[in-house]
Amino acid sequence: NMYGKCGSLDDARIMFDKMPQRDIVSWNTMIGTYARNGYGKEALELFQQMQLAGIAPDRITLSSILDACAALASIAEGKECH
Question: Which residue in 3, 15, 46, 70 has a CA-CA distance of 20 to 30 Å to 25?
Answer without folding.
Answer: 70
